[in-house]
Each structure stands twice: as structure tokens, then as C-alpha cells.
């Protein structure tokens, strides 16, 4: 844990006062605590958080391991409502100490189903400063793998109740230039299914204008969509993650940051152009390098003078932070022995011309640096609160500014970009505030039920975001855009996504879903879409909100590489021999559908029935308590919804109502949630994984242990 280049460079930047230097270096050499955030909409999160606070933490309060006292998890002081936690426990304690082992497996399962996000503490900051509201049009420009996207989605869904999800009027457009990573992002965000989410795969620095129809007087025209909030969590050298990514100790060199500066500036400048008046941009990196931080902010503020930095010193008062730098000294010298105070000094030096060409004036502090208030930027250092290193800046588009920068005016003239006042925004449906009755926990059900894949998780899923970006992942531009329509076809490389088609509200498949679940007429049937290749029958139905629908219908997808839109609600389920295939409601779609479902359609369940459903793959109907059995026997085969009311019985205690999808065949029932979601539910309700998969995993582990002993 020594790198003289890194030390010389950061000492020259004076990132901390001399007397703090040793503390900073000591902190960099300590392992990073494990941090996690209780995810989901506010009410669901608070319920789970209470379990952590009142059940788990007290059981970890007095633990000793190999003669050493082990400190329990503590809440991160600055995170709102105490929903984020941190603990610093060696791996062997998690594996061997019984209480911590139990807590660890709780975290693993809850992470799998998306109720907990294993996210670095400082990486939770940008969305908190973005202050997204459910009606906002928000954009996450460099979003994958999606931990911050999830936080923004939660803010967009702030009106969700513990029982069901709302259809927000706002939008979250999450983008990443790396195609593979956008799919990771989609997978992660399926944990908080949202009809307001769109995912694109584009170069953020050159993000195309999205058009939406706007009515002025009698005329409707297409105008550019401008955003209320934009997050630029840009690709960076990642040296703030050195406590976790030990490879940085060896590999760090100054050209990493120098090389990223120009892309970072271009991404931020593009975000500025996509923002509406009085909107807000959060720019962040997990790097300590001023060239990737203050220098980027300075260059962008000079390029677009409609913007200013926002003072957020009173927000998150418990967060220890340091002001942004106003001086810094870039270098191209690998040893970092020599840094340069100004661009002029650098250009006059004996540095090789090829190297000189890699640097711009913008790498250095501008002449009028004081005017930019760079000290309003925030630097988070590891020694202040035992965290990673991080940088955040909040920029705001001034309320009314005539000071349009030259390129801005030019672009607006070219694109006809217009600011849409609130009253002129396209008319979108009102927020539909969900009923506060039933509760589905948002289980991930993308995989087929009990698909038989055993991925018994050993560790909590690590957040890949904080890794130093390997060469292959450094600033990427998506594969060349297809020139011809033909290239859009599947399997030809380039853009492979299927077309988006909205169903007619009287489409027979949609009508059959609606009739079967007695979905009422306020359900937005006109917003249901499919993505099957032309000519193929639909297998999955998605639901989009009005703004997502408007965007899909008014833009050209050869230009906007749309990877995903809306949330899955129904999927085709092949039935057994002699029965017709049917569409079933998906666990992830249930929260959105539930407010529209006629209550008499929902089957009342009880704890014993829930236990049987959790414990067995296909329990026979006659195994269930009489009341429940009679009700299900009266129902036709196919997709049903069951409500399990909160309460305490001898078997278990349910802290809040649960609503889950089941499938009824002729003689048996199946709980339609995926294997891991079922295990998480089992752990939460019964204190153990009583699922078939859980039991199999345990007996497998015992067999292995016995074999080892024999050997
Ligand atoms: C720091 S990571 C983002 C982490 C993410 N915000 C999160 O919290 O999970 C930076 C991301 O930028 C993406 N990226 C790199 N160059 C890009 C570009 N030109 N346009 C858009 N995204 C880019 C990378 O693929 C990477 O996923």
C-alpha cells in the first residue's frame, strides 16, 4: 500500500492540510467497511429497517470471536431516516460466528431480492443531492450497473405505499454507453419495477435530443424534452475506491485522470444542454483528482454560463466534507516529481510534443477561478468518516438567464430547442395514488419459477461500480450506429432490440388478462406494450406511463438506442397437457396492477397456507387448511392473487400485509416468486430457509463437510 507517484501528486495538489496527510494515508490503508442501504419505497424500507434495528442489531450487540469483541453494524449518520448501515467485520467472522453468519445470510437474501442494496456509502450521496420528485423528468447519464438509478427510482416512486406501487407521472431515463452494462442495469432495476423507467445505450457526451409533442394554441409540434434533474456519475479513474480496489495502489498514474477529463467535460456540457431552467445537475466521481473534478466543473461552467454551483452546505448536516479546490497542478510526468502551475508553464516546458497534445488549457485552473465558486463542490475524504473518497458538485440552471453561451445558441437554432414551461408540458395522467391495503413486496420474478438454478450466494453482491475501470471499459462509445434499417434485425450485431408496439386496448390477449383478474376500467390499457419481433406472438406484456409512451411513439429508434421501457406485468404461462396457455400476472408487475384489481378476485390466505406454499414446490390443493382449500378449489386453473394479512400466529409473524401471485393447476398450487425471493421471504417469516431449495442446499453442504472429514 505504497505508491510514491500517487503520494507526490496528491501532496502537490494540497488536497488536505499537511497535518492531516498521515491520517488520510492511514485511512487509505484500512479495509473499507461493508455498507448497505435498505432499498425500496419508503414504507417498505422502514419496515425492513425496523427488523434490522430491533431484531438483528441487538443479537449482534455482544459478540466475541476468538477473544475479540466484534462491533455490531451502525447506521451511517448522514443517511436520511437511518436507512444506511455500515460494519467492519473480517470475512471469517461472517462465515463462522453464528449470529453474524445468520445476519450475513439475511443480507445475502434480501440483497438478492432487492430489498437491500450493497452499495458503497459515499456512492449513495449523488441521488440524495439530486432531490428527485415523482413528477420530475430525470436522467442518469452514466447509469450502469445502476445503484444510483435504483435510488432515483425510489425517489420517483416516493408515493408508493407498502401495499402497492403508483404510476408516477415522471420519467427516469437511465443510459450507459456499454451495452452489456445496460443489461446489468435493467436486471438491477427490475428489483424496483417502474413504468416510468427507460434504458438507453448511447454515448452520453453526444446524447441525441428526445422529441415530445407540445401543443401551442391549436398546433401540436415536436419539441425537445428537457429534464428537471440529471445525474452525471461519469467514468473516472476511481482512485477514491483504493481501500477496496487494491490494484490501484500498483497501477495509479496521473495520465488516468488526464485522459478522462475531456470526456467528462463533454458529458457534463451535454447534460447542461438537456436541462430545463431551474433544473439541477449532480456531477460525481469516485476520484480525488482535481483534473477529473474541479477542472471539469470549471470548464463546463465557462462553456455554459447559464449555470452556477449550488450551496448545499446545510443538507445532510452529519456528512463531513471539504470544499472543492481552487488551485491544482496537473502533470504528465509518470513519476509526478514535477507538476505544472499553469498551462503556459507546461507548454513552455521540455515535455514531449506528443504528450503536450494530450493536455488542454482546461486541465488547469482557469484565470478567473474565484468567480466560479468551486469551493461549493464537495470532497469526501476517507479519514473523515471511514469511507471511500468521493467528489460531488451540484449545478443549477439559473432561473432566468440571457447569458447564453455561443455553442448553446447555435445548437438551439439548429435543433429548435425550446424550454417548456410547466403549463406547456405534455398532458400526462395524474399520479395515480395507490390504495393502502394490500402489500406485495417487490420480488424479482424475471426467472421462471423454480428454474432450478442453484446460485447459493456466498457473499453479498458487490457493487461493481466502484472498480477501477479496466482498459476495455474506459470511456466507451457504443458500437457504430446502424446506417440501414436492416442492421436493426436480430442477430446482425449492432442494435438488436425488438421494436416497441403498443397494444390496442381491445387486443384479445390484454382483454383476457383484464377479464381474468377483474381489472377495472381506470387501468391504463392504452399503455401496454409488447416487444416481440414482428410476426411473433407476444410472450410478455409491459406497462409504460404516459411520458414513456409519448417518447416511444415520437422518436426514432435508429437514433435512440432504447434497450428497455416500462415494466413487465403479464407473461405467457404454458399450461399442462390439454389446457390452453394463459397470461399470468408477474410478481414484479403485481404492485402496479394491484390498485386496479377488483378486491373480490383476491384470495384471502393464512399463515399456514403461506408456509406450505413457501416450503413445497407444487403442494396439492388438499394439503391446505380447509377455508383456503375451498376457495382455491372454486377458482379456475391459472393465475391468481393471494392476500396474506399481517398478524402473529404460532407459526410466524407477518409485520405487514403481503400480496403474492400463485398459479393453480388442476390439483396443485405454486407460489410464483423466484427461488431466492422465496428463500428471503422464508428467512424473514420463519427465521430459516424452509424452501425445498434451501433444504437441498443445506444437505448438500452437510454432505460436502462429511466428505471433507473422511478425506
Ligand atoms: C462510475 S460508472 C457509473 C456507476 C453508476 N452510476 C452506478 O451508480 O451504478 C461510469 C459508467 O459510465 C459508463 N460510460 C463510459 N463512457 C460513457 C459514455 N461516453 N457515455 C455514457 N456512459 C459511459 C461506463 O460504462 C460506466 O458504466
From TrEMBL:
One Pfam family this sequence matches: PUA_NSUN2
One of the protein's GO biological processes: tRNA methylation
Matches recorded under SUPFAM superfamilies: S-adenosyl-L-methionine-dependent methyltransferases
Residue stretches of biased makeup (Basic and acidic residues): 421-431
SAM-dependent MTase RsmB/NOP-type domain location: 24-398
Spans annotated as Disordered: 401-431
Positions of S-adenosyl-L-methionine binding: 142-148, 176, 203, 233
GO molecular function: tRNA (cytidine-5-)-methyltransferase activity; tRNA binding
InterPro entries: MeTrfase_RsmB-F_NOP2_cat, MeTrfase_RsmB-F_NOP2_dom, Pre-PUA_NSUN2, PUA_NSUN2, RCMT, RCMT_NCL1, RsmB/NOL1/NOP2-like_CS, SAM-dependent_MTases_sf
Subcellular localization: Nucleus
Keywords: Methyltransferase, Nucleus, RNA-binding, S-adenosyl-L-methionine, Transferase, tRNA processing, tRNA-binding
Gene Ontology CC: cytoplasm; nucleus
Residue positions of the active site: 286
Similarity section: Belongs to the class I-like SAM-binding methyltransferase superfamily. RsmB/NOP family.
Annotated protein name in UniProt: SAM-dependent MTase RsmB/NOP-type domain-containing protein
Source organism of this protein record: Cyclocybe aegerita
Amino acid at each position: 500500500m505504497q505508491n510514491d507517484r500517487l503520494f507526490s501528486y496528491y501532496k502537490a495538489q494540497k488536497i488536505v492540510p499537511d497535518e492531516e496527510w498521515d491520517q488520510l494515508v492511514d485511512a487509505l490503508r484500512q479495509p473499507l467497511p461493508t455498507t448497505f442501504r435498505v432499498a425500496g419505497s419508503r414504507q417498505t424500507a422502514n419496515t425492513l429497517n425496523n427488523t434490522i434495528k430491533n431484531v438483528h442489531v441487538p443479537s449482534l450487540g455482544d459478540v466475541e470471536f476468538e477473544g475479540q469483541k466484534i462491533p455490531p453494524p451502525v447506521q451511517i449518520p448522514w443517511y436520511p431516516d437511518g436507512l444506511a448501515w455500515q460494519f467492519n467485520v473480517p470475512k471469517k467472522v461472517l462465515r463462522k460466528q453464528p449470529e453474524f453468519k445468520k445476519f450475513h445470510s439475511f443480507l445475502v437474501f434480501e440483497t438478492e431480492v432487492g430489498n437491500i442494496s450493497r452499495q458503497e456509502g459515499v456512492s449513495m450521496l449523488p441521488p440524495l443531492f439530486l432531490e428527485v420528485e415523482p413528477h420530475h423528468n430525470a436522467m442518469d447519464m452514466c447509469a450502469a450497473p445502476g445503484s444510483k438509478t435504483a435510488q432515483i427510482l425510489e425517489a420517483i416512486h416516493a408515493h408508493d405505499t407498502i401495499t402497492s406501487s403508483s404510476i408516477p407521472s415522471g420519467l427516469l431515463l437511465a443510459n450507459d454507453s456499454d451495452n452489456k452494462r445496460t443489461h446489468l442495469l435493467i436486471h438491477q432495476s427490475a428489483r424496483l419495477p417502474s413504468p416510468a423507467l427507460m434504458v438507453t445505450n448511447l454515448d452520453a457526451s453526444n446524447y441525441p435530443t428526445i422529441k415530445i409533442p407540445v401543443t401551442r394554441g391549436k398546433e401540436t409540434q415536436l419539441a425537445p424534452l428537457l429534464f428537471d434533474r440529471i445525474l452525471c456519475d461519469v467514468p473516472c479513474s476511481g482512485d477514491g475506491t483504493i481501500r477496496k480496489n487494491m490494484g490501484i495502489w500498483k497501477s495509479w498514474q496521473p495520465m488516468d485522470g488526464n485522459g478522462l477529463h475531456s470526456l467528462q467535460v463533454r458529458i457534463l456540457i451535454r447534460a447542461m444542454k438537456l436541462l430545463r431552467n431551474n433544473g439541477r445537475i449532480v456531477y460525481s466521481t469516485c476520484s480525488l483528482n482535481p483534473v477529473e473534478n474541479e477542472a471539469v466543473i470549471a470548464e463546463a461552467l465557462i462553456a455554459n454560463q447559464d449555470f452556477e454551483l449550488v450551496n448545499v452546505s446545510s443538507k445532510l448536516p452529519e456528512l463531513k466534507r471539504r470544499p472543492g479546490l481552487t488551485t491544482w497542478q496537473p502533470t504528465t510526468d509518470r513519476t509526478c516529481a514535477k507538476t505544472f502551475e499553469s498551462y503556459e508553464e507546461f507548454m513552455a516546458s521540455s515535455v514531449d510534443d506528443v504528450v503536450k497534445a494530450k493536455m488542454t488549457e482546461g486541465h488547469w485552473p482557469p484565470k478567473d477561478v474565484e468567480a466560479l465558486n468551486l469551493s461549493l463542490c464537495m470532497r469526501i475524504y476517507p479519514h473523515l468518516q471511514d469511507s471511500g473518497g468521493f467528489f460531488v458538485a451540484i449545478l443549477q440552471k439559473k432561473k432566468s438567464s440571457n447569458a447564453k453561451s455561443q455553442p448553446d445558441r447555435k445548437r438551439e437554432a439548429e435543433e429548435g430547442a425550446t424550454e417548456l414551461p410547466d403549463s406547456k408540458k405534455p398532458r400526462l395522467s395524474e399520479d395515480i395514488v395507490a390504495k393502502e391495503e394490500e402489500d406485495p413486496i417487490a420480488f424479482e420474478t424475471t426467472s421462471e419459477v423454480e428454474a432450478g438454478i442453484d446460485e447459493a450466494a456466498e457473499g453479498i453482491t458487490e457493487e461493481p461500480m466502484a472498480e477501477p475501470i479496466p482498459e476495455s471499459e474506459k470511456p466507451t462509445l457504443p458500437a457504430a450506429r446502424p446506417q440501414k434499417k436492416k442492421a436493426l434485425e436480430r442477430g446482425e450485431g449492432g442494435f438488436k432490440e425488438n421494436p416497441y408496439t403498443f397494444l390496442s386496448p381491445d387486443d384479445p390477449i390484454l382483454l383476457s388478462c383484464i377479464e381474468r383478474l377483474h381489472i377495472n376500467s381506470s387501468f391504463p390499457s392504452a399503455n401496454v406494450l409488447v416487444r416481440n419481433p414482428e410476426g411473433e406472438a407476444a410472450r410478455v406484456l409491459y406497462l409504460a406511463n404516459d411520458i414513456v409512451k409519448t417518447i416511444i411513439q415520437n422518436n426514432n429508434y435508429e437514433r435512440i438506442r432504447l434497450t428497455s421501457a416500462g415494466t413487465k406485468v403479464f407473461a405467457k404461462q404454458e399450461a399442462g397437457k390439454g389446457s390452453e396457455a394463459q397470461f399470468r400476472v408477474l410478481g414484479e408487475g403485481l404492485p402496479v396492477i394491484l390498485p386496479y384489481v377488483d378486491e373480490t378476485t383476491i384470495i384471502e390466505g393464512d399463515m399456514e397456507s403461506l408456509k406450505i406454499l413457501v416450503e413445497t414446490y407444487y403442494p396439492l390443493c388438499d394439503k391446505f387448511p380447509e377455508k383456503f382449500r375451498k376457495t382455491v378449489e372454486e377458482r379456475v386453473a391459472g393465475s391468481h392473487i393471494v392476500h396474506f394479512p399481517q398478524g402473529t400466529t404460532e407459526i410466524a409473524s407477518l409485520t405487514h400485509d403481503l400480496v403474492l401471485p400463485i398459479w393453480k393447476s388442476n390439483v396443485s398450487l405454486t407460489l410464483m416468486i423466484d427461488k431466492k425471493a422465496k428463500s428471503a421471504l422464508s428467512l424473514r417469516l420463519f427465521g430459516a430457509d424452509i424452501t425445498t431449495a434451501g433444504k437441498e442446499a443445506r444437505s448438500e453442504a452437510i454432505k460436502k463437510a462429511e466428505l471433507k472429514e473422511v478425506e
